[in-house]
Predict the structure of Glycoside hydrolase family 39.
Amino acid sequence: MKIANLKLLHKMLLPLLLLAAGCSTAPFQPKADNSQSAQASTQLFADFTSKQAQIGTIYDFFDVAVRTERGNPKGKPATFGRKAKVNTVRMLGGWYNQDISGDTYQWDGEKYIYNFAAATKRIDAWLDNDWDIFQIVLDNPPWAFQRGYKFVTEPDGKHYLAKDRVGVYGNGLPPKDAQAWNQYIQAFIQHLVTKYGKETVLSWRFRIGSEIDTRPQHWAATRQAFFDHYKNTVNAVKAVLPNATVGAHFREATHKSQYVDYTGNKEDAYAPYFVEWAKQNQVPYDFLAISYYPHITHPHEMDMQQVYQTQIAPILEHPDYNPNASFEIHEYKFIVKMLRAGFVSVATSHNSAFFAMLSKMMLENNIQEVFQWGNMRAGSYSPEAMTQLALHRMVGNKLYKNAISGAPNIEGNIIDGIFSQKADKSGFDILTFNFNKENMSYQKPEPIALELTTNKPAGSQFSYRVAQIDQTSNLDQLFMAEFPKANIPQSQGGWRKDDAHPTASITHALNKTGLKVFQLTKAKYGKINQLKWSEWQEATTQVSAESQVNAKLQAGSGKGSLIKIYNQLPSFTVQKYQVRWR
C-alpha cells in the first residue's frame, strides 16, 4: 500500500472505531444562546432583510440521471419522490462491442437501411419503467457510416488512423457521407414524432456528441470536423422540429490532450472555440455542457473558486457565449481515480460534504444541471444523494449570499453554507458543510455560529432543529466501523486491497473475503435514505447589532432582530438547519 494511503487510513480509523463502540464523534445538538459564553471559531452571517443579499431562487439541478446503452431501466436513482429522468447515451448505436443489432443505420449487403426500432425499443424500456426522457444523445454514429473510409497506420492528413477505427466507447469518427447523415437524422426525428407525438418529442432535448474533445475516446477527427458535424446535425433536427432544444457536450476549459490525430496535430479544449464559432456562423445551441470528475487526490480539482475561474468561466463568461443558453454539467462523479471506461467513486462522508460545496458554487453561478451516474444502491443513498435529500426540500426557497468571520481551528478546513428563506417567509433553511481539500483525515469538530438577521422584532419566538450527514450516514463507513479488517491492508492480514484509497467504495476496495462479509452483513444496517434530525428547540431573537452585521455583509437594512445558533461541525460533515417562526 502507498505510504500516504496507509497514513490516511490510520487517521480515519479512530473515528470509525469510536462509532463501532457507540461513541459519538460528532455532537450536533445546536444551542441558541443570548450570552457570550458560546465561543465559535467561525461565524456564518446572512441578512434576510437585505434585497441586495437575495441573489436568486434555489432550483432543482440534480434531477437527471445519465445512462449508457447498457443502463438498466429497472435500476432507479434517488428521486426524492420525483419521477426519474434519464439522459440516454449512445442511443443510435455504434457501440464498442460492434453489435450492429443495436445500430439504427445498417448496410444489408446491398443498400443502407434504417433500423429505428432498435432506438425506440430502448426508449420504450425507459418509459415502461416509469422514467421521463430528458435528453437523447446523438453521439456515436452507427458503424455503417464508416463504410468507404481508408485507414492508415501513420498520420497522413487525409485518412483516419487504423487504431482509432474502434474507440474506447465505439465509433468516434464522423459519418463518411455527411448528406446521408443529415437525411438519416431527419428521418429519425420524424420517426420519433410519428411514434410519440410532436408535443412529447419537443419536451425532449437532443445533445450532439459526448465529451467530444476527449480524443480519441469520443472523437478521432478534428475540432473543425466536429463543428461541421454539429451544424449538419442541428440543421437536420430543426428541419423537422424547428423549436427542438439542442446543444453540445465538451470537456472543461482547462482540458489538455496529448492525442495526435490523423493530421499530426494535438487539440485541447473545444468549448471556448465552439462559442466563438457558433456566434460567427449563427449556429444555435440551447445548452452547453462540460464534464466534471474531481479527484480526491488532486486538491486543485476540489477548489471551487479555482474550478469556476479556470474550468467554467472561460466558457460561460466568454464574450460570445449565448446568454440564453443554459450552462450545465452532463457527467459528474467525485472519484478516487478513472478506469478505462469507468471510475472508482468516493464512498465516505467526504462525498457528502463535497457535494454541498459544489452545490453552493453551482447555485451562485447559475449552473443549471448536474447529470449523475448511479446515486443509490439497494435502497440506500450514496453520500452525495444524502446531501441532495437535504437540498431537495430547499428547492423554491429564496437564496441569500452570506459572509464569514473568524477562522477554522483546523488548517485548511472550508466552512461555509447555503442560506435560504422559505418562499412564504415562514422560516429559513441553511445547509452548512466542513470540507478540507488538503487533509482527508477526520479531526476535531469546529465550533461554529449562525447569525441570521431578520425583520422580526427582538424577542420573536422561533423553533429550530438540525440534521447531520456524517460517517454514520452511509453503508460503507458503518461496515468499516464494525469490521476492522475492512481497514487493514491485505499485506497486513486484512481485507483491504493494498492500493485502495481510504475513501474508495467497498466494491473497489475490498478483496473477495471482505466483499462476501459485506454482502452478508449490509442488511442489518437498514436503508440509509433518511435524515437524522435533532429534537426541535425553542428560542427568541436577540437585538440586532446592526452596525457589526452590516460591516461584515456590506449591505442590509439594520432593522429587525438576530437569530443566533451555536453548534459543532465535524470534519467532512453536512448539517441542515430548519428554522421556523412560531
